[in-house]
Amino acid sequence: MYILNTSFMVEYDVHDLWLDMIRNRVVPYIRSKGFPDLTFTKVISNDNGGHHTYSLQVEMDDLAHYSLFMDDILAEYASICAPVFGEKALYFTSLLKKVEL
Predict the structure, then answer these.
(1) What angle do CA 51, 26, 74 make, to 5 degrees?
(2) pLDDT per position as a tens digit, 12-47
(3) Distances from the Cα of 83 to the Cα of 13, 26, 40, angstroms
(4) 54: exposed, middle or buried (C-beta count within 10 Å: 0-12, 13-18, 19+)?
(5) Which of 7, 10, 37, 85 sits most deeply, having the most CB atoms within 10 A of its CB?
(6) What angle do CA 36, 2, 47 make, to 5 degrees?
(7) pTM of the entire predicted model
(8) What is the C-alpha to C-alpha distance for residues 97 and 101, in angstroms, rounded to an integer?
(9) Rounded to whole angstroms, how far apart are CA atoms 55 and 94?
(10) Using CA atoms, how far apart are residues 51 and 54, in angstroms rounded to an integer?
């Protein structure tokens, strides 16, 4: 089992519009592509530095799903959000593999 974590840093002045786009366009698109297991959180442990930080975690069974997410879903996110927000909403993605304890 894998978890794809995408962290977002969103400046205050675009936050409300960005969050609305995540809720109403991006998340429905992710779910329509077969990724129902989403966790969306706001990071509260940083000093904020002029922005809000969020984490979107998506569980997936295999690396084929990872490729789909990276090639399709993040490209769709970039096409929706980059023209509107530019450098005011940045993100990076990490792939995690669950390890049994």
Answers:
(1) 85
(2) 999 999 999 999 999 999 999 988 889 999 998 766
(3) 16, 15, 23
(4) buried
(5) 10
(6) 85
(7) 0.87
(8) 13
(9) 11
(10) 10
